[in-house]
Design brief:
The chain is α+β, with helices and mostly antiparallel strands. It has helices at about 5-45, 60-80, 155-160, 175-185, 205-210, 240-245, 250-255, 260-265, 285-300, 305-330, 335-360, 365-375, 375-380, 385-395, 440-445, 445-455, 460-470, 480-500, 505-520, 520-525, 545-555, 575-580, 590-600, 610-615, 625-645, 655-660; strands at about 100-105, 105-110, 125, 130, 200-205, 210-215, 215-220, 225, 270-275, 425, 430-435.
Length: about 675
Amino acid sequence: LRKSPVMDSFVRQRIAATATVGRGTFRFWLVLCLAACVAVAARYLGTLNLGRVRLQDEPLHALLLRLGTTVAALALAGQLLFAERLKCKPVALPADPTVTLREDNGVSCLAPVHIGRAKTAEPLILEGTSRAFTNASNPRGLSFMPATPEPEASVDDRGAASDADAPSDPKLIVLEAEAACTRNQAEAAGGAAPPAKRALKQYTLAEVATHCHRDDAWVIIDERVYDVTRFIDKHPGGVGPMVNLAGKDCTDVFANYHAARIYRTMLPAFLIGEMAPGEIVVWPHVADFRRIRQELLRRGLFETDMGFYRKMLAWHALLWLGGLYLSLGLQSCTAHMLGASLIGIFWQQLAGIGHDLGHSGVTHNFYKDHLIGSLLSCMMGLSVGWWKSDHNTHHVVCNAIEHDPNIQLMPVLSITPKCFRKARFWDSYHKKWVGMDDVAHLLVSYQHLFFYPLMALARWNLYVQGLIYLITKPDCTHYRRTELAGICLYFAWVFAVALSMPSWAQAVVWIFVSHGVAGILHVQIVLSHWSMHSYEGRAYTDADDEWYITTMRTTMNVKTPPLLDFMHIGLQFQVEHHLFPRLPRHNLRIAREMVKEVVQKHFPAGSPECKRLFPLGVAYHEPGFFEGNLEMWRVLQDAAYAARSAKKGEHGFWECALWEGMNCAG
């Protein structure tokens, strides 16, 4: 079809017509569902006598909350019915292999692979690593890649081409001048030779690997070596990610976590050398995962659709105001508990916004997104500064026993017997020794029985962790005072609502119901990782545990219908999110199709390579929500049975000097 202009035009017209019909059908069912919800709600309110309040008898605060809820509902309905999705104009991949597509403030832009030192000799450069392909190469025939461009015109043809053929999209040529400048540095005015540059010192992977500590940290990015030791404590994303990647090639991690301007304004100051020829090898699956990123950039999918967040604003306002109205504006105990449930759902949904902001995935400006998230602490009670330090480390060392703070839960929980297989291990994030003591032995042995009730209370742990972080300042943080003030305001309004209940019993139950419903969030957070592969030591050492494979081994998706994407706040696409964390939440489903195709190309289910690399026998694991919960519960059960059957002398508690002394050992 791509070879036939007539067929190509016909197919495009049919796709456009189908998309139009699909939008119309979606709106019809949306209107029908909204009408049904309004009818059911009105009937339910009438049955419970919740709405039979005369206007003149209604308190002012109840009237304002009811009006606010109505306005939010109308705003949400209007957004759902009439708002159009952002349409980005695809662009052509750069023909020059020394130039690549990167993202700055969510906008795709051209940028040189190496600032001031772009390589032009063979082999060519693709996304920073030596390969014998151009940017448009597609050796494995990936369907999401654009068609191979026509052969370039001759010099005479290009000279006769009109100016209308030149690229005109201002978003895509912002940094094009820089790329051109890189290529033109060799051309001095009047034909004079450029000034000589000092050759970069060359290193091997083994040499770089020795610089892997906090006080001596080197990293490899795009075949260049950078000494970032003096920047570790200033890193806005926290110390953890840099320390855990020290001594390694973090080209893909860096590209997916940083904007183009960081390459331009910060990296050159830390450059100390380059990799020796032949040291860096790009495996075929890595090349194709990089092609996914380039295609996402080419389509402009890193640009945030602010219409999506306008819907989210109306949706969150509806939940919060509706919850407050039911809790404060009505007298029924049933209404109060419904209000508490809505507040719990509001907290769960708002965590998704905080998650997006924490990854700079809304405005794509680090400080602006961070400030918005810190201001929202007055609504959710959580510290974004603590979350960024914890969560960024989790992304880089996902399911690493000694390094991932999201699985270091002893003495309460353990997701694998590996956590207590040794006498103890050093928790590199919390800076403490962890081992099985008497309390851990008891709790872990029965963790599968109390896990879900515990999740109903887990939000209180987040409060405590955030406050400890803000008070002690163990890592680089921003807007600390703003978050402390916001958290104080949060507890003020939450307890004010609870204490407005007619009895102490209702106040306590209101607190427990709201936090219990919000516990859905904590199940979603752990669901995508706890049943997956975990490992000891450090990753990213060879082809079997490089960045992409490690992500696929330690992360799974949750299969959900598109209409329920908003309920899962983007956490159902954890594979794509871990691979491309700055990609806006509303575009993760598009990336999912590309990732699945690449995984199927390289690691088809049941193949020997897939069975060797992936413990589950499938590289892309995507169970349903309830199936995923069952898998996670079974993992907790297996770890509990392993702990329960442990005998003295096998684990940390029994291998301590105190125990040996009490038993006169030796």
